[in-house]
Write a structure and sequence with these properties.
Layout lengths: L11 H5 L2 H10 L3 E3 L4 E4 L2 H9 L3 E2 L21 H8 L7 H11 L5 H24 L2 E3 H6 L1 H11 L11 H9 L8 H27 L5 H6 L6 H32 L12 H10 L5 E6 L3 E3 L2 E3 L4 E5 H4 L3 H4 L28 H18 L4 E2 L4 E2 L8 E3 L1 E3 L1
Parallel strand pairs: 2-8
Antiparallel strand pairs: 1-2, 3-5, 4-12, 5-8, 6-7, 9-12, 10-11
């Protein structure tokens, strides 16, 4: 079956509900060539899970090959600020550099460290939800889902509330993340370059301040590590903000939308919602695709995928695969105990911030259930056009 007949990530209808197409892709085979992006689509849970861990693949190839050796063109020099920022961050590093930086940054995301943040996160969530309730409702995304994770990451990084640039963190992040969509437009690329320059310039100024006046924050800790260059510190901070709030924002808003349209809002546990949070992460995955380069030939379901190819691991499809989640894979089950979803990835690129994301999501859902038990939709939400990072423009509710 021609994958292009099913997979259309630029179609609003497909973006709104890609899951029927995923089911047909899984039925049709384990690897599908998609000419519009020149990628191999991989839709099955077992394959996605295995390839996320397979060291024959990588987020980059430049630690082993030149662009010419790999059969690829060098990045457009007009977009150099974006690529410099992105290429020095954990998400796109491989080999010894990835191991070195992940070891240093992981200290900020140990279970014990994250648990120490729990009272602060819950207080922030309670306060934001209380304001929403006092107003009788409003845009859940702008009022609660976006401010919470941005405030948490900004506090971890040591970004002062008095800095005017703090208001730009979310817009900068959105512009940069636009480059992770498939075949981004020239306008998207220019916006990402501007945001990369502005965000990097601000962080370099912040780093200079912290060198002369260190604090109890992650930026101060990172600049005290001789193993990190300034560019690696900047790139790490940007990645922590981008990755540290996208999943939380889109799962919080998408989760409420899912619960309300299924009539399941009152079924959400009012006490510990952790099991329900993982089910919402599985049921409507915020990051639908994770791309990797093939560094050595691999075989998927009898199809040889040669070195130099790119695979698109369809996380959203893997999370709805009946071969792993049984006949109820397409159903929302807030009590699902056996839930090995791949929303946070796997292997060396498993999301460092997963414990923090779960903490933030639990705090948001707990506060909403306690303070807004009768919450209902005030208007149909409008989706953003992006497919890779799926989310909404807004979600208006009444309480």
């Amino acid at each position: 079956m021609d994958a292009a007949a099913l997979f259309d990530p630029w179609s609003p209808g497909f973006v709104a509900d890609p899951y029927p197409a995923y089911a047909r892709l899984r039925e049709a085979g384990r690897a599908h060539w998609y000419g519009r992006t020149r990628q191999w689509l991989v839709p099955h849970h077992a394959d996605v899970s295995a390839l996320l861990r397979d060291r024959r693949l990588g987020r980059t190839y430049t630690h082993r090959f030149t662009h010419e050796e790999f059969g690829r063109e060098a990045p457009d020099p007009r977009y150099e600020p974006f690529h410099t920022l992105n290429d020095h961050g954990l998400l796109d590093l491989e080999g010894a550099d990835h191991t070195r930086i992940r070891r240093l940054v992981s200290r900020a995301f140990t279970p014990r460290t994250v648990e120490r943040l729990a009272p602060t996160v819950r207080e922030l969530a309670d306060g934001l939800v209380a304001e929403l309730v006092a107003a009788g409702g409003g845009d859940l995304q702008a009022a609660v889902a976006e401010p919470l994770p941005v405030a948490v990451i900004a506090a971890m990084l040591g970004i002062p509330e008095s800095d005017e640039e703090r208001a730009m963190l979310r817009p900068w992040s959105a512009a940069i993340c636009g480059m992770f969509e498939l075949n981004p437009s020239e306008e998207t690329a220019r916006a990402a370059v501007r945001a990369s320059v502005d965000f990097s310039d601000y962080l370099r100024r912040l780093i200079a301040r912290r060198r002369s006046d260190p604090g109890d924050d992650l930026v101060s800790a990172l600049i005290g590590v001789e193993e990190l260059t300034e560019q690696e510190t900047v790139s790490t901070c940007v990645l922590l903000l981008n990755a540290g709030h996208e999943a939380t924002v889109n799962t919080a808003v998408g989760g409420v939308w899912t619960l309300l349209r299924h009539g399941a809002w009152t079924s959400l546990p009012a006490g510990d919602p952790s099991t329900a949070v993982d089910e919402l992460l599985r049921y409507d995955t915020p990051l639908q695709m994770f791309e990797r380069w093939v560094l050595d030939d691999i075989e998927v379901g009898g199809t040889v995928i040669p070195r130099g190819s790119q695979v698109a691991l369809l996380l959203g499809s893997a999370n709805r695969d009946p071969a792993r989640f049984g006949p109820t894979a397409d159903e929302l089950d807030l009590t699902r105990a056996d839930n090995p979803h791949v929303t946070f990835g796997a292997g060396i690129h498993y999301c460092l911030g997963a414990p923090l994301a779960r903490l933030e999501l639990g705090a948001v859902f707990r506060a909403l259930r306690e303070r807004a038990p009768g919450m209902r939709l005030a208007a149909d939400p409008v989706r953003r056009p992006g497919y890779v990072i799926r989310g909404f423009e807004s979600l208006r509710v009444e309480v």
